[in-house]
Amino acid sequence: MHIVRMTADSGVWLPLQSEMDGIKNTKPPLVFWEGIASTSWGSDWTLFALRWPSLVYTGLTAFFLFLAVARFSANRKTGLLAALVWLSFFATYRYGRPFLTDPPEVFWISLPFFALLYWGKAAFNSKLLFPTLAGFSIGMALLAKSFAYVVPACFALSLFYWRWRNWSIPKLIVLDAYKVIVIALLALGVFALWFVLDPFPQEIWKEFVVGENASKFDARSSHYLLDLVRGGDSLWMLLLTTLANAGLFILVLISALVQCWRQRRFLSFEETLLLLLILAFFIVFSLPSQRSGRYLLPVMPAFAALIALYWDRLPLWGFRFALLLQLILLAALTWVGSNLQLSDFLGKPGLWDYSYAHWIMIGASLLLVLLGLFYRAHTKTIALAGCFLCYCALNSSLSPLEGSLGRYDQSTVQVIKAQDVWVPCDYRAKDEEYRLLLPGAKLHGYLAKDAGELGMLTSAYPLVAVQSPIGLEPTLCDSCKI
After folding, report:
1. What is the DSSP string of 290-321?
2. How many structural domains compose the chain?
3. What mean pLDDT comes out for the span 222-246?
């Protein structure tokens, strides 16, 4: 957000701008350009304006996943199921809505693989058209996230072509190797436009190529090989966090992979391709010392497709576990929400208040989840619906913060317009979030750990946002004013 705002204020697309040294080129420019366009060069600085491109990308990914699976499975219901399962994953809910690089990355990387699954022979045998379009698509993904994604994408495409040639390496080399090379060169060519168009390419090399990418191969704690098998960046954590991207459906995903293993001798051509896509990304992203399931977000649609293909054959225990998690989550939201509504929050009864619609939705969700636990015939369908109900319940439970509880009153906003205000910041440019709450103010960040040090803050800054425990009036100096 900070880079989008600063670049928009400069009036030019490049170079990217920032008030802080060393973070101007931490990400390629595509997502920042999208933010500039969606906010009309910063004039419409709202959360919706920043987020709607991410929602469009997520919707398009789900739509093309539906088309691909419906085509090769010859069943629209299976295609729709694949799209809904992917949308139900917690990773989609978490990363598919905010202003992040993940939605465009997932869309542009997935597109060539969806095309191969949809058109099959025509796409595999295409000598120029498909490689050209695939190179452009992957290049857009690189321009959104990182040039490093050309490696897993082209590795996966090589495996796809290898399987298409019935595992014949000579045929792969003679007939398809040049296609992968063309795709890689075109993709890197699209990414290289950043260096060509930016007047300071040496800064991109220093901050992005060396600082953001090459450093990911440095040992995180002790030794590269030791980090591979132990600690928070180990291979096992990569596997766990990848599976955890499914959220409430984690055991459903595991049961689908178990079914794939049991049916490994009878896998269809498309099922093999989906597994090869997952394997390629997992192998490549196990090599850097910094490992995270977030790097494997582009293969989550493939996981969703496998779940949809095996839906009728999956055991109920994975779905019942999902329903149990949903029941716990809904019960916790009910308990917390009811206590907040009945309490004198901040000394004012009724301040934290829910509408009747909220409690009706929570009650209906609880009843539906309980029904799914005991009604075998609809366990799977209700478990899928329950994921969306939980997300709706979570959003609804936080809805009081969308009102006066989570906003500064208009008189405060008007008073501090065009004035310098210091706000707590626990990460680089995290204070930008306050700009949505205090439009027009000139914001500066200070260390969030000092937010409770009222004496120090009020003596250092003329206008400062401080934090105090709920229900306790902050103790200020005689000349200080809230």
Report:
1. S--GGGGGGGHHHHHHHHHHTGGGS-HHHHHH
2. 3
3. 84
CB 48 within 8 A of CB 11: no
pTM over 0.90: yes
Pick from 218, 310, 305, 226: nearest CA to 263: 310
DSSP assignment letter at 25: T
Q: Distance between CA atoms of 260 and 397, rounded to whole angstroms? A: 38
Specify whether 290 is located in the same domain as 399. no
Helix (H) or strand (E) holding 424: strand 420-425
240/156 same-domain check? yes
Q: Copy the structure tokens of residue 217.
A: 């191969």
Written as six digits, the tokens of 465 are: 């946002």
Q: Would you state the pLDDT for residue 227? A: 75
User: Which domain, by its residues, includes 337?
Assistant: 316-405
Residue range 28-43: mean pLDDT, rounded? 94
Is 299 in the same domain as 320? Answer: no
**Structure token pair of residue 427:** 């990460």
Q: Which residue has the tokens 């090599």?
A: 287
Asked if residue 139 and residue 73 are part of one domain, the reply reads yes
| Per-residue CA distances from 97 to 49, 58, 384, 387, 462 (Å) | 12, 8, 19, 16, 36
**Tokens 């977000």 — which residue?**
297
Residue 235 lies in a domain: yes
H/E stretch holding 447 reads: strand 442-447
Residues 125 and 44 in one domain: yes
**109 — phi, psi (to 5°)?**
-70, -40
Same domain assignment for residues 89 and 64: yes
Can you give the length of the chain in residues? 482
The answer on 307 and 202 residing in a single domain is yes
- Nearest CA to 110 out of 118, 99, 100, 98 is that of 118
Q: Of 333, 399, 382, 359, whose CA–CA distance to 88 is shortest? A: 382
Contact yes or no for 142/187 (Cβ under 8 A)? yes
